[in-house]
Amino acid sequence: MNRIVSIPLTAIVIATSLAFFSCSSDSNDDEPGKQQGSTSETDPSSSSVAQTPSSSSEAQPSSSSEGASSSSEEVVAEILCGTIAYDPETHFCLDNGAVMGTETGSVTVTLKCGGKTYTASQFCSGTDVLNKCGGSVAYNPGAESCCGSNKLTTATQFCLGNAIASKCGGSTFTAEQFCYNNSKVGNKCGSRTETFDPDLYECKPEINSNGIFLKNPVSYGDESYEAVLIGTQTWMAQNLNYDADGSKCYNNSEPNCSTYGRLYNWATAMANSASSSANPSGVQGVCPAGWHIPSDAEWTALTTAVGSNPGAKLKAASGWNSSGNGTDDYGFSALPGGNGISSGLFNNVGYRGLWWSSTEGNASNAYYWGMIYNDSDVSRYDFSKTSLYSVRCVQD
User: Fold this and answer.
1) Number of domains in the chain
2) Can you name the residues that pair with 85 across neighbouring β-strands?
3) pTM over 0.85
4) Dist CA 274 CA 134 (whole Å)
5) Which domain holds residue 184?
């Protein structure tokens, strides 16, 4: 808010003229050798000379007054910022609250930035004019930057969308990625939000868009098994198809083993180990080294990690009869391998998937978990150890 104060020259000229003539008169009165009443003052020639200054003295102020009047439009300018004068060559008047061209009335005399002026939403850094974060927060360009309306420390932080995030081991990442253990950047798998060790797991969208898969499939017997991370557990994504003594293919047909895996009685699945209700069970059974038969508690942990309608989320997206397919949200891909008894009777293929646990109910029975084509739940059952059910192995 600059103001210019104008001082008319007329007053200056008149004041100067009056001062001049006052000084001249005082000088003549005091001149040495002149006496009042001297006859020399009556000399006609002296009188004429004396009259001339008088005549001139009377006319001059009028002439000066007219000259000042004609020059009254000329001004001596003084530029103000509020009530403070400043040099516009080096400074400017900064409206401290100027927004969208309005003025608040709060102003400050401010040094120009490399010869440039700037607004209240900007600041000077060296000779550069920079925009404040959100129009209000200044920052140190060498060590900080903006993230929306806030500033961040560039050495340890970055802007993720409009939010300030910590770098991951010195690296930035995108909204489709995550930071694991504050040191490794991994890629999110589909709609999954869990973090995982990207050195061990990865997304395999060609198999399942949401599955978090072990990088290296598990080789066992003549098969290669994919495995998926669900919660804190890593489950095989296929029914076990290891040809152990006492195991059978559904209806004794090898193609069924290729599709659904083999069926095992409880003793065969457990490799004759004792019952375990621990989590993890610690029973390798018929599983490969580093893997084990899940206990009743581990099946419970699986369904808890999945949440509501676990059967619908764990069932494969195809392979179930009578519109019984699931959404396969985790890549578990449960298939309806049916069941049988050791004497050779089989049923329910295409309609039910049933899997052993390592936990017995009593000397004759053990717990198993099942999914049915027309149900979205995963249910727990207690039945004869001589029954034939599928096996899923869990990583130690």
Assistant:
1) 3
2) 80
3) no
4) 67
5) 167-199
